[in-house]
Amino acid sequence: MDDFSEIINWNNVFKQSENFKTNKLCKFAFIENFFQEDFYKKLFNSYPIFDDSWDHIVTYDKNHWSKKWAGTTTHGIVQDGDDKSLSNEWNLLKKYASTKEFSDNFKKFSNVSVEKLKHFHFIGMSQGGFQLPHVHNVGPSTLVMMLYFSKDWMKGDPGATYIASDLDESSIIFEPYNLDNTLVIFQDSQHAIHGARYLEKDVQRKALQITLEGWSLESGWSGGDPDKIIEERSKNLVEL
Ligand SMILES: [Fe+2]
Which of 37, 135, 208, 232 could form an S-S bond across to 147 if both were Cys, CB 3.0 to 4.6 Å? Predict the structure, then answer.
């Protein structure tokens, strides 16, 4: 039986619950000292280095590094099972993030009806990285979490995921500068606009993205199955 009791500082999480629930328009929160100190050190020291096992994604709207969990489908739905290329702590965290206890705690924290782990992947950024402001808007039962593993971030420096009130960087309402054992969490909606400002310095922004979502046996993911959506779209393509 795995022991998940020394992973997360749940007290710190629940301290921000009211704040999250009462935010107008976009429901979000920022949590410091998310992981218990000892566990965080081990995750930090074994965060995977940016190498060939990552995809460096450069498109008009973003420039970042992505590393999927072993067995993840093309469009990102994480599967059960370990990733042998990663440390025991990363495997234990992934296992914990897949439990009902983990989803139920975040359901209680947010009042968002999440049921299951959908995404669990590393998102890195190096010099020149950015992501334009965007929304997913796949439904009300999705929680997006960005967890950070970068020390010595300077106040005011770009690169972390911000929340904005419009599709424009001048409308940023929150951008974190402590990226050492912290979490930004938001509920998906048409108002959950987010992105990352252009990273000018030669530093690495190391993050993990976790998405929890509504799910049922009858209807699947509340925000849709990305593999099916893409398959449908290709069937409906009309030649111009
Ligand atoms: Fe996004």
Answer: 208
- State how many domains the chain has: 1
Residue 202 lies in a domain: yes
* 134 alpha carbon – ligand 1 mean position (Å): 6
CA distance 217 to 113: 15
Q: Structural domain of residue 113, as residue ranges?
A: 10-239
The CATH number of residue 189's host domain is: 2.60.120.620
CB atoms within 10 A of CB 180: 14
Report field, pTM of the whole predicted structure over 0.90 = yes
Q: How far apart are CA 195 and CA 216, in angstroms?
A: 30
Whether residue 3 lies inside any domain: the answer is no
pLDDT tens per residue, range 21-55? 999 889 999 999 999 999 999 999 999 999 999 99
16 lies in some domain: yes
CA–CA separation, 184 and 174 (whole Å): 10
Distance 91 CA to ligand 1 centre (A): 24
Query: What is the 98 CA–ligand 1 centroid distance (Å)?
Result: 21
